[in-house]
Specification:
single chain, 278 residues, alpha/beta, Methyltransferase, Cobalt-precorrin-4 Transmethylase, Domain 2, 2 domains, five-stranded parallel β-sheet, five-stranded mixed β-sheet
């Protein structure tokens, strides 16, 4: 590593669920000042093309595990340290909010152990964006007084006892990262006694022009090839979407976000360039 001139700083910021206008003013300000941006896959191209300092280096560090194209977390940690210790202002840009189902703990531990200054800036998490653009208040008088954020990406994430609790609750339940597991989610809830006519809203690529909203009764759910990212909302509040949904559903959506594989070239180029210069 080259000689360290001065210590930089890392900004861990949420980019929101897709709509570029949902970025906070504080995140926008740091993007305009950034020297390096480490960006997730689920960040709108418009944010990267229009909001980021044109002199900044943008490095794609997306994860798309089921497609076999993901940047290891250790690589992301190393990149943060490398650039910050060379005096750079680094923005670690995450889709949605930084503290909901992300690897922010691993990144914070890395920054602290290396003595690197940092800030954490919240973003609009996918559940809030998806619910708002589908016209579904997550809590509403007479419908639900609480909401639960859950993920189910492998069978041991949710225990048998918790499936029973989810099936019995009147809380709104939001499942993150559910594009490929919804069939199993519905099966487990029905198996554990959830009301068969309870409504399920499936929101693909929420807040983008490619957003698709599909509503099922649980006992009529049909498995489909949902486009990632997909949010699933289960509960009585889903009934309100029929009255309050305001964004027209795209019935023939295309992939809004770049595949992680298409962005790996940027990461490879970065390491090739650095190794050549050394």
């Amino acid at each position: 590593m080259s000689a360290i001139l001065n210590k930089g700083k890392v900004i861990i910021a949420g980019a929101g669920p897709g709509d570029p206008e949902l970025v906070t003013l504080k995140t926008l300000r740091y993007l305009q000042q950034a020297e390096v941006v480490l960006t997730d896959r689920l960040v709108s191209n418009e944010i990267l093309n229009c909001y980021v300092n044109p002199r900044a280096e943008i490095i794609y560090v997306g994860k798309q595990c089921r497609k076999g194209s993901s940047t290891p977390q250790s690589t992301i940690n190393d990149l943060m340290v490398e650039h910050a210790l060379n005096g750079k202002l680094v923005v670690r840009l995450k889709g949605g909010d930084v503290s909901v189902f992300s690897n922010v703990l691993d990144e914070l531990e890395t920054l602290v152990s290396n003595g690197i200054p940092y800030e954490i800036i919240p973003g609009v998490t996918a559940a809030l964006g998806a619910a708002s653009y589908a016209g579904i208040p997550l809590t509403a008088r007479g419908y639900s007084t609480a909401v639960r954020f859950v993920t189910y990406y492998r069978s041991d994430v949710v225990t048998e006892e918790y499936w029973k609790e989810l099936a019995a609750t009147n809380d709104t339940i939001v499942f993150y990262m559910s594009a490929e597991t919804l069939g199993s989610v519905v099966k487990n809830l029905l198996l554990h006694g959830i009301s068969e006519d309870k409504k399920l809203a499936v929101i693909e690529q929420a807040t983008t022009p490619e957003q698709k909203l599909t509503i099922f009764e649980l006992n009529q759910f049909e498995e489909q090839d949902f486009i990632s990212p997909t949010i699933a909302i289960i509960g009585k509040v889903v009934e309100l979407s029929e009255r309050f949904s305001w964004l027209k559903s795209n019935e023939n959506p295309r992939e809004y976000f770049n595949a992680a594989a298409s962005n790996l070239t940027s990461l490879f180029s970065h390491f090739t360039k650095n190794n050549f210069e050394k």
